[in-house]
Write a structure and sequence with these properties.
Structural class: alpha+beta
Helix content: 25-40%
Distance between the termini: 28 Å
Largest sheet: 12 strands, mixed
Strand content: 15-25%
Number of strands: 23
């Protein structure tokens, strides 16, 4: 699996023979320096550049190009070399840009000889710099690693070499630019943007488009909206906008660079509609292109959306599918409404004349109106079915490619689960679907960290399949759903960065809570009785107060020693049994103020059972996102007027995946606490 690095991160290298691929939006000079343990370069003979492209274990390109491949054999570099620094620079004296801030962020990837990526890094944050140290391969205790550096230099190569203590820094920089200038006529320009895969012509605007009266993609969503509204995407990149991406270096459809043969087997470049990787900053969505084969939609590809990483591209693609389904269903419902109103109008016109109320002429007019109605509805249904079929095909490709945080519990990715080292951008809280398109499920993704608490409604409810669950069964299902959500949150956070507390006043949830209790992932056994609930609530309320005071005072490091600074989740079962007025006020306080300082609330409660508190609890329910333990169409989408059906992410019956994941989380926590 590729490690997508950020500045300063490192990653072990699996072998000595590697290839470093560079992709930029403009021709750049690529080179490398060989340094000692301190990074010092002891002479011009330790620098590989277009004028001297070959060193022991290292070979770079002979000219400026938008894409490069650097060959590295770490076993062949001298023993005195401990650092191999990969550098990029903009050519001088030409018509190209003079600073990296004016071009797309360069992308660098370390791959094996088979092309499999080991690590990648997108160099962001550059402005006036014209040279940059992109990556550093360094030797540590006999093994080689790669580190993302991204150190830029406004003074260009001369300043870069001087920083590496090279005595002839200015002379070498000048000779490199002279060598590049003599070969600029041969420089390979940036490849043109690849045309995006075309989605079938829908009855509504295509993904990322603005056809009809559909508002911008970001307008209908508000994660802090009214309870029951569909939480929408947040963060960089408008979801659903599938921008053009640069082909991967050396891939089909890309001009051959120096030392690279063109794609064999054809007279011209191969039309490769989807690249393996985005190699620059996420581009804006281009105009729609015609389908590769007339009359046939393009084949769906997982990750076919804009974004800096595969995780972000999949996130944006999922929300793009959500928007596509919302739009096409809204168009279908609008067409049906129009057909109904038109038929009613035509029938009213027929019946307004008494001569047409009886007799063959009136019957014929009514039959004609109904026939036109049926034709309009049939046409609308045909468009809906076509769009849904394309979305189903896309979902079949996307679902298996989702990371664990986005995947269902039955996805095989959970069987290869490993405790992560960083927080994902979002979490799957269930599935969404519509009655007109029941065969497709859209993952319901919520950005992390949570901005609202969760309310698992355990009130009596009739599920959509016609079955009816009594209050006891609903409470059991509600707590099982809460456990599944808590386990997923524990699984996607790094060790020690997420803590779960449970309040079970009457001890009625012992069976459902068993996976959390037996695995040892809870901070303490579930609190029981009024005293236990008071102790937990007081401790978490105090934590919120302390963190708020530290942040407001501008001293976040002045927290008391021993304070758990990880994210906290409080699961409250069987509310309001065992809670007095003080405890209720503390819950309201945690729901309102907790998320901003990393304390989150998950209530398993029946609202009707707490009606004795009157309107006191109305703000509590409004501040929480309502979910259900059974499928229910309660999530409103005010943008298009849908009521989405929500399905909870339950663990398949008989599956041990939940216990296996929690066991790994507990083991990682024990190792982290040592």
């Amino acid at each position: 699996m590729t490690a997508e690095l950020t500045r300063g991160q490192n990653h072990p290298l699996p072998g000595a023979r590697l290839e470093i691929r560079v992709s930029a939006g403009t021709p750049v000079v690529a080179g490398a320096t060989l340094g000692d343990e301190d990074g010092t370069v002891h002479g011009v003979a330790q620098v590989a550049h277009p004028g001297a492209p070959t060193l022991p274990g290292l070979e770079v390109s002979r000219q400026a190009a938008a894409d490069h491949r650097l060959a590295v054999d770490l076993d062949a570099v001298p023993d005195a070399v401990h650092r191999v620094s990969v550098l990029l620079a903009l050519p001088t004296g030409g018509r190209g840009p003079a600073r990296f801030g004016a071009v797309a962020a360069p992308f660098v990837a370390v791959t094996g000889l088979d092309g499999a990526e080991v690590a990648s890094y997108t160099i962001t944050g550059l402005e006036a710099e014209s040279a940059v140290v992109a990556l550093e391969l360094y030797r540590r205790q006999g093994a080689w690693k790669v580190r993302a550096v991204g150190q830029g230099y406004a003074g260009g190569l001369a300043e870069l070499f001087a920083d590496q203590q090279l005595p002839q820094a200015h002379q070498l920089a000048g000779s490199i630019h002279e060598a590049v200038a003599s070969g600029l006529a041969r420089s390979v320009p940036a490849p043109p943007a690849a045309a995006p895969a075309h989605r079938p012509d829908q009855g509504t605007a295509p993904r990322g488009g603005t056809g009809g009266s559909v508002p911008p993609a970001s307008s209908p969503y508000d994660s802090q909206g009214a309870p029951g509204s569909v939480p929408g995407p947040q963060g960089p990149g408008a979801p659903g906008q599938h921008g053009a991406q640069q082909p991967y270096p050396g891939g089909p459809g890309e001009p051959a660079t120096a030392g690279q043969p063109a794609a064999p087997g054809g007279d011209g470049p191969i039309d490769y509609s989807h690249p393996r990787r985005q190699t620059a900053a996420p581009p804006p969505p281009p105009p729609a292109a015609p389908p590769a084969e007339p009359g046939r939609p393009a084949r769906p590809v997982a990750g076919d959306a804009t974004g800096w990483s595969m995780e972000e591209r999949l996130y944006n693609q999922v929300w793009g599918m959500f928007e596509d389904l919302a739009r096409t269903t809204a168009a279908y419902r609008s067409a049906v409404d129009f057909a109904d109103s038109r038929m009613e109008k035509e029938l009213d016109q027929v019946l307004s004349d008494p001569r047409n109320r009886i007799g063959g002429q009136g019957d014929a007019a009514r039959e004609a109106a109904r026939a036109r109605h049926g034709e309009l509805v049939s046409q609308a249904r045909e468009v809906l079915d076509r769009d849904v079929a394309q979305l189903v095909a896309e979902a079949e490709v996307v679902e298996p490619a989702l990371p664990a945080a986005f995947a269902r519990w039955d996805n095989p990715v959970w069987h290869a689960y490993r405790v992560p080292m960083e927080i994902p951008m979002a979490l799957r809280l269930g599935d969404l679907h519509l009655p007109e398109a029941d065969r497709i499920r859209i993952p319901m993704l919520i950005r992390l960290p949570l901005e609202r608490g969760l309310w698992i409604d355990s009130g009596r409810s009739a599920s959509l399949d016609g079955s009816f669950a009594d209050s006891h069964e609903m409470r059991r299902l509600g707590l099982e759903t809460a456990v599944a959500h808590a386990a997923r949150l524990l699984a996607v956070y790094p060790p020690g960065e997420f803590t779960v507390h449970v309040i079970d006043p009457a001890g009625s949830g012992a069976q459902a809570l068993a996976p959390l209790v037996h695995s040892g992932v809870l901070a303490a056994p579930p609190a029981q009785g009024a005293a236990g609930a008071t102790e937990v609530l007081s401790r978490l309320t105090e934590r919120v107060d302390l963190v708020q005071m530290a942040l407001r005072g501008g001293a976040p490091d002045a927290l008391p020693p021993g304070l758990d600074t990880s994210h906290q989740l409080l699961i409250v079962n069987d509310f309001p049994h065992g809670f007095d007025d003080r405890a209720v006020n503390q819950l309201r306080y945690l729901a309102d103020e907790g998320p901003a300082v990393g304390v989150h609330l998950m209530m398993v409660a029946d609202r009707e059972e707490s009606s004795g508190f009157g309107p006191l609890l109305d703000p509590l329910w409004r501040s929480l996102l309502r979910l259900t333990p059974v499928a229910e169409d309660h999530l409103a989408d005010p943008w298009v007027g849908h009521a989405w059906t929500y399905e909870p992410p339950l663990v398949p019956p008989g599956s041990q995946v939940l216990q296996q994941v929690l066991a790994q989380v507990a083991a990682a926590r024990r190792s982290w606490d040592r």
